[in-house]
Amino acid sequence: MTRAALETAGVPHKLHVVEVCVDAFIYLCRTIQYDHVPKPDVVLLDLNIQSLKGHELLGEMKRKESFRDIPVVVLTSSKIERDMLKSFGMQADRYVTKPAGLQACACEMKTIKELAHP
Question: Model-level pTM?
Answer without folding.
Answer: 0.82
